[in-house]
Amino acid sequence: MGRDVRRAGLAVCLIVAASAAVALGAVFLSMPGLGAATVLAAATALVLVSLALLRLARRLDGAMRAAEDSAAMCAETTALTVAADIAVLKRSEAVLSERIARLNAALDTLSLGFLLYDRDHRLLVVNRRYHEIYRLPSGAVTPGMSAREVLRRNVQAGSEAERSEAEQLAEIGALMGSGAAPAQIQHLPDGRVVAVEIQPIDGGGFVAIYEEATERWNAEARIAHMARHDAVTDLPNRVLLRERIEGAITQARRETGFAMLCLDLDNFKQVNDTLGHAVGDELLRAVAHRLRACVREVDTVARLGGDEFAIIQAAVTTPADAATLAQRILDVVSAPYALTHHSVIVGVSIGIALAPGDGLEAERLMQCADVALYRAKGDGRGVFRFFEAEMDARLQARRSLELDLRAAFEAEAFDLHYQPIYDLSAERICGFEALLRWTHPTRGRVSPAEFVPLAEEIGLIVPLGEWVLRRACREAAGWPEGLKVAVNVSAAQFTSSALIGTVKAALAESGLPARRLELEITESVLLVNGSATVAILHGLRNLGTRIAMDDFGTGYSSLSYLRSFPFDKMKVDQSFTRDLTVEQGSGFIVRAVVSLASSLGMTTTAEGVETPEQLAWLREEGCDEVQGYLFSPPVPACALPALLETWNGRTRRAA
């Protein structure tokens, strides 16, 4: 096009030049008088004009060429700029697309469901895991949906079937509300649990994170259950029982009262020790099952530990309501149990406290029921007792005695007294029985019948028994050669083979020969894991000590035990000795014991000899040894030399 313009311009110049030449020629022809010089000048001017026009035409052509080249360059530059911008834009779009793809891929690999909403609660981002958690088909939830539409898709898929659609839709408003909890739990109909966390973002909108937390929830629920329930019976434990008591107290302040029952199984320890802990646990589960069957759904049965249970009986208006339940429990629990491999029978003792009459504090009610239980056990077991006001005074006295007993043990504020054992054939004292004594600074002399059972209850009897053994061996080591010392060993000390090491250490520390130590056990010891006890007895015998069965015939004697372990001595209880000379008294029993011991190669010692008549009878029946107030009451160690002088210093035959 530029070339055509240039050509047209040149043609115009030539036309103008030619037109000028023609015009000038016409002028010359019409004017013949002109001279040659004039014509020459005119021709010259014409030529100059033509040359100027040609020069103008050339300039015009050059300018148009330059303009054409400039336009072409501009067009080319513009095209290059646009192309470059397009290329940059395409590269940016490619990078953005790649980043979005990576983000989506990353979101889809998350183990958490992820939803991102804008300030208008329109969905911006959703990942695949969200669909998997709620069992939604792929693409069921897409960007652009409102939060309500997202929930409606869940409703339609049946993931929230337990609630109405209106209830579920209302939840969205709560989730998005300013006061909403940042973390919530959803329980799905198929049993799964989903943890939902809602977090606002800057500029409006929010992020919702969904985690399928079924296993974690179940594990935490199991841990929480275990913290409040007994592992053996699955009954509520002390923690949950305390909460239930507090709830019952709140109810009692507004409406009716309730009863607090404390239960303790009778003879359970014997079952547990003789048949093993597995059988004991099975028995506890069976007892728990029966207790549940005795109460209503509004009541609570709990296990406090060991063989102790507790019951909260709700809506109790009169003591008769609690008495009826207690009697039903006595009847049901005491029936025989057919366990997997054994048939056993246990009893139960029950203490009852009533709210609000006996108090409206959890600790107070438990204390009152426990005091009543203590009374029930003291009244022969297998019965129930209500708490009474005077019981509280006895409880306080018992607790005070317990504190004093613990303090006395720490201070070793005990002493040993010794009662002589008289040999009827040798007519002399052959040894002494060590007896524990406690003189309190303000109470004075405390009877062993009072503090020894308490020591057993509070777990002091084993260390206290070890102290007696060491002290007796140390003092007996200074006696004249041939005198023995007898030491009582409690059933609790036979629960472990450590007793053998304790005896061995006491003998080594004191230097007392083992043959001069006589260990006395009661028949009840043999009922505690009989085979293990017999093994311990053989271990003690191997040390060289002598073993005596104390109070034979007053407990659960069995001739099979005498056959399984050959005791060195049988001791006749003072209750039999007391009635020896009474008509139709216990003489035939003592005669049988002496005869049995003699046939088994054992010696016999009769306790509680207080009169010459009793002594004569025992001598006549062949009893080997005697001890009692006829010879001497228990005396301190410092009095033994005088006692030995009295009975062993000169030839003297007891009456």
TrEMBL record:
Domain named EAL: which ranges?
Answer: 398-648
The answer, when asked if Nuclease is one of the entry's keywords, is: no
Start and end residues of each GGDEF domain: 256-389
What keywords are assigned to this protein?
Membrane, Transmembrane, Transmembrane helix
Output the Gene3D superfamilies linked to this UniProt entry: 3.30.70.270, EAL domain, PAS domain
UniProt cross-references to InterPro entries, sorted A to Z:
Biofilm_reg_signaling, EAL_dom, EAL_sf, GGDEF_dom, Nucleotide_cyclase, PAS-like_dom_sf, Rev_trsase/Diguanyl_cyclase
Residues that span the membrane, as ranges: 35-56
Database matches in Pfam families: EAL, GGDEF, PAS_7
Q: What is this protein called?
A: Diguanylate cyclase (GGDEF)-like protein
Source organism per entry reads Methylorubrum thiocyanatum
